[in-house]
Fold this sequence. Notes:
The complex is a heterodimer. Chain A is mainly alpha-helical. Chain A folds into two domains: about 45 residues, no CATH class; about 100 residues, no CATH class. Chain A contains six helices and three strands. The two termini of chain A are about 25 Å apart.
Amino acid sequence: xxxxxxxxxxxxxxxxLSGYLLALILAxxxxxxxxxxxxxxxxxxxxxxxxRLRVGLGLFRYLGWLMWQVVLSNIALVxxxxxxxxxxxxxxxxxxxxxxxxxxxxxxxxxxxxxxxTLTTDVxxxxxxxxxxxxAGLQELKGGEMEQRIRSLGI
Amino acid sequence: xxxxxxxxxxxFLFAGGVLCITGGVxxxxxxxxxxxxxxxxxxETLAAPLLLIGLxxxxxxxMDLVKVxxxxxxxxxxxxxxSHAMAKAALHGGQKPLVSDSDxxxxxxxSSNN
Lengths: 155, 114
């Protein structure tokens, strides 16, 4: 029963963060652990069972690369915001995707949204709808480096 | 060594503060809702992490340091979900993104296939 494992893990995590032994705090902790487990149960009904996330070196290397991309696009956006002319050319377009598994899709859509200047507004079977502050941002996504990196993670 | 950390921390905190203001200015300057979400992203994805790293540099090795690190991870993990939810809610509520017409022919495609 994997809900029991989730329950125990959450309880341990909560204890690790809190460290208090007062009755009220413990009661609140128990309540929140139960609530979260119930949420997970509800989500599983939507997603159809749970998937194990394979956390490996590749994922951390990807996250490092993603953080660097976030910094770069932040710098570009900050320059744009302080530019008196506000040089933005917003576009809202379809981006065809070839990511297969639900996890890859979620990671790709979230990575796009996390990077300022590009925002995923809709996730469909074979494409996303992307809002970009500049057509260059969309072109970069269409270049597919991020998608390729996610696909090569093999999760 | 601690002096290096002090200055590094001050640098991170200052950069974080400037970026917070930048995010606010961006929210005011951007023309429509969707563009404003991008501007708010500066505060969430770079300013907040810089401030938290700046704080971590001043802390001793302790449980609190781990907690601040977790706050950082949680902010970065949940921010895209919140941004996506806002954008989707705005679309659902009938807001249409303002798109620039400077690249003419290509702009029609997006609105027609949603």
